[in-house]
């Protein structure tokens, strides 16, 4: 059975769209890490930077467009300010293509997040808490955080469970 005549064209349009999106991000995001790796993406990636994985150091994450918001969470007594790239920008930098993200923390906590969450909400991969880097003791160095105060529907156990702190790996499924 031969492939459909437009199959190659469709594939190149998809890859072309991914490259255009990646080109809009800082070039540093596609390089290999120069410092210690703080985040690894695995799974369905079109643009890994080392073998079949995408590794990020803190400088690479800082080079992506940064977003900040203050929000109340169950883990802190008062609203805190979280800063970092949008999770969708991190995924775009690696050409992630999947429907589910399996977030894995340093302590091996695992939770699945629908990719749709990062499209519908400005989910931040926080690297700063109140404008300071987060230590492992303070839920760092990376914390997936939803803008809980922006949408009352986000203030639920479902979204709190998806807010993985001490994030180390994202498996794109």
| Average pLDDT taken over every residue | 87
Number of structural units classed as domains: 1
Low-confidence stretches: 1-29
CATH topology: Sulfite Oxidase, Chain A, domain 2
Largest sheet strand order: 2-1-11-5-6
Number of helices: 5
Terminus-to-terminus distance:
29 Å
Describe the structure.
The chain is of the alpha+beta class. The protein has one domain: Alpha-Beta Complex (Sulfite Oxidase, Chain A, domain 2). It is built from five helices and eleven strands. It has helices at residues 7-24, 58-63, 87-93, 115-120, 157-162; strands at 37-43, 54-57, 66-71, 80-85, 100-105, 110-114, 124-126, 128-129, 132-133, 143-145, 167-172. The strands form three sheets. It has a five-stranded mixed beta sheet. A four-stranded antiparallel beta sheet has the order 3-4-8-9. Strands 7-10 form a two-stranded antiparallel sheet. Strand 3 (66-71) and strand 4 form a beta hairpin. The longest helix has 18 residues, at 7-24.
């Amino acid at each position: 059975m031969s492939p459909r005549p437009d199959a190659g064209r469709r594939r190149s349009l998809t890859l072309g769209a991914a490259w255009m999106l990646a080109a809009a991000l800082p070039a540093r995001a596609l390089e290999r890490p120069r410092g210690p790796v703080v985040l690894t993406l695995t799974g369905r990636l079109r643009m890994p930077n080392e073998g079949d994985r995408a590794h990020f150091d803190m400088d690479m994450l800082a080079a992506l467009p940064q977003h900040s918001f203050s929000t109340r969470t169950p883990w802190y007594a008062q609203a805190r300010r979280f800063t970092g790239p949008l999770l969708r920008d991190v995924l775009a930098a690696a050409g992630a293509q999947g429907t589910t993200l399996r977030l894995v923390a340093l302590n091996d906590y695992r939770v699945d997040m629908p990719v749709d969450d990062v499209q519908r909400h400005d989910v931040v991969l926080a690297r700063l808490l109140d404008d300071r880097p987060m230590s492992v003791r303070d839920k760092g160095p990376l914390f997936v955080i939803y803008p809980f105060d922006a949408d009352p529907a986000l203030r639920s156990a479902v979204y709190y469970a998806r807010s993985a702190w001490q994030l180390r790996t994202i498996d794109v499924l």
